[in-house]
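Re: the multi-chain job from yesterday

Posting the exact lines I submitted so nobody has to dig through the queue logs.
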Amino acid sequence: MGDLSGENSGIVIPPSNGAQLAVDEYNATNPKVKLEMIKYDSKADPTTAVSLAQQAIKQDKVVALVGPAFSGESKQVGPLLEEAKIPSISASATAVALAQNGWKYWHRVVPNDGVQGPAIADFIVGAAAAKKVFVVDDKSEYGKGLGDAVRGQLKTKGATVTDDALDPAATDYSSTVTKIAAAKPDAIFFGGYYAGAGKLIKQLRDKGVTAKFFSADGSLDKGIIDSAGAAQAEGVLIGCPCRIPTAAETDEKVKKFATDYKAKFGADPLIYATEGYDAMTTFTKAIATGATTADAINAAIGKSDFDGITKHIKFDPNGEPSAKSIYMYEVKGGQIGLLGDTTTAKLG
Amino acid sequence: MFDNLLGSFWPYTIDGLILGAIYGLVALGYTMVYGVLRLINFAHSEVFMIGTMASAFVVMTLGITQPLTGFALVGGLLLMVLAGGAASAGSAMLLERIAYRPLRKRGASRLAALISAIGASLFLQELFALVIIPHVFNRPQQGRNQMGVARIMQKDTLFTIGGAQIRVDQVLIFVASIGMMILLDLLVNRTKIGRGIRATSQDPETAVLMGVDIDKIVRVTFLIGGLMAGIAGALFVLQFEVTKFSIGFLLGIKAFTAAVLGGIGNLRGALVGGLFLGLIENYGAAIFGSGWKDVIAFTVLVLVLMFRPTGILGESLQQARA
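And the result, C-alpha cells for all chains:
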C-alpha cells in the first residue's frame, strides 16, 4: 500500500515492483499455497489509506501487508491492522515515533530517521577523519531535523561544529559559502534536498572550497549532479538507509535482483526497490514455513532470521529492524556509486 | 557575531554588489512600467525567467561540454545575451498586448490589471513546467525540477581584494549590468523617445495633447524593461548555471523590493535599491546567519519606508533626477 500514482509515486512504485518480484519468485517454486498480491493506491493520503485498509481487511481478507509506504499513512493505518491482527512490513516509512506505539503486528525493514544522522556523523569523524565540520540545513522539517541530529552526534564525538542555514528556493548562496570558506572546515554536511545541495556544491567549488561534502537520502538523486555539474560534484558523499543497486554493483544477490527487476519491469531498480523485495520475502519465508493465517504469519516473521538483499532481516520486539545499516554513496565520474555500509566503508 | 562580517568583509561586499546589480537590472522593468502606467507588473518575474530559459537553451543547443575560450566564448556569450534579451523583450511586449492593453483600452481599474498580471504570471510558470521544459528542453516529467546549465566560461580568479577572489565572470556581470543601466539612463534623458517616456509618466493626458503616441511609449517601455530582465537572466545563468520554472518568483520579489527601496518610478533608484539590497542581505546574513537573510532585507525595507516613504532617491521618473 502506498502512493502508486501521485507526485511521490517515484519512491513507491519501485518497492511495489520489488515486492511483486518476490511474490512471483515464490509462486514459481510451486508451493502448496500460491500468493496473490493486491495493490492499494493510497495517493499518500492517510484518509484514503484508512478506507483502503478497511477494504483490505474486510473484503479482500488479506493475511499480510507490505506498506504503508509513508509515515503519515502508517500512523493512521497502524491501529486498524493491530485490531484486525494483520501483520505489516513497511519498506520506506522512517518516522521514529511509529515504533513507539506498542504495535505487535507492525514492522519495517528500513532504519528510522534517528539512525541516519548519527551514522553519517560517525562516518564523518571516523572514515573521513574530520575535526572541523560545517553543518548547513535548509530549514525544512526534514533538513533541520537531520542537521540537528548530525550536529548533536558530531559534538559528542568531539568535532568542532559551525553552522548556517539556507533557503532551498533561493539561488545565491554566496553568504553561506563565504562563511564556510572563512571557517575552513575539513568536512561539510548539508541536510536538505538535492536541488539546494547541487547549487551549494557548485558555488562552494567555484569559491575554491575543497572540503569533503556530505549529504543524506534527500539528496540521493541524479539531479544533484545535474545541478552541481559533474566536475564539481565529484567525490560528494551521500548517506541513505536505502540500498540502491548501482551500475558497478559487486554484491551478487543485489546484482541478480537488479537484473531480474530490469527484465521484468524494463527499468532500473530505484530507491526502496530492494527494501520492498525484502519486506515481501520476509512474508514468503514465513508462509513457506506453513503459516497461512495472519496470526501464524506474524509469529513466524517475529522469528525471521535470514540474510535479505539489503541487510540481515531480524526484528526487534517493537518491529524495528535489528540491523540498522546506513549506506554511503559516492559521486564518481558523474555517477552515484555505492561506497558501502557507513560502519565499514573506507574512503579511497 | 560581528567578527564573521569583519573577517570576510570583502567577499560579502563583492557578492552583494554582484547580486545587487542583477536585482537592479530586473528592478528597472518594475520601475519603468510603474512610472508610465502606475501598474505593478507582477508578471515581470516570469519575463526574467524566460530570459534565463532562452540563454539556457542557447547553451544547450550549442552542445557545450567544455568551457569556451577566445572568440568562441565572446560569440557564445553574445548569443546568450541576445537570446535572453530578445525572448524577454518579446514576451514582455506580448504580455502588454494580451494581458494589459485590452484592459487599459476599456478603462478597467488598476486592480483588474494587477489581477491580470498575477494570472499571466501563473500561466507562464505552468506553461514552462508543463510544456516547454518537458518538450523543448527534452526533459519529460521533469518540468518542475531544477535544470543545470553547462559551464560556458572558465571561472578563473582575476585578482583579489582583501581576501576576496574576484572572478572573470563576476567582473563581466557587474560591468555589463552597470553599463546597461548607464545606456538606459542616457536613452531616457537624452533621446526623443526618452522625452516621450518622461512626459507620459508626468502627465499622460497632456502628453497625448502634445502629440505623444501613448501606445508606442507603453510598447517601448515594456520592450526596454523586458530587454533588461532578459540580459539579467543571461547574466544569472552565467553566474549560477541553473534555472527552473519558478526561478523568477523569489528574484522578482527581491527586485520589486529593490525598486521600492530605491524609489519606485525612479531609474537610478532601481540601481541604488538593487545594490543596497544586495549588500544588506549579505551583511545581515554574515551577522545573523544566512537563514535570516530575507528577514533582514525586509526589515530594512520597512524601516526605510517608515522614514522615507518614497524610497531612498524619491519616487518620480519625471523629475530632474531621472
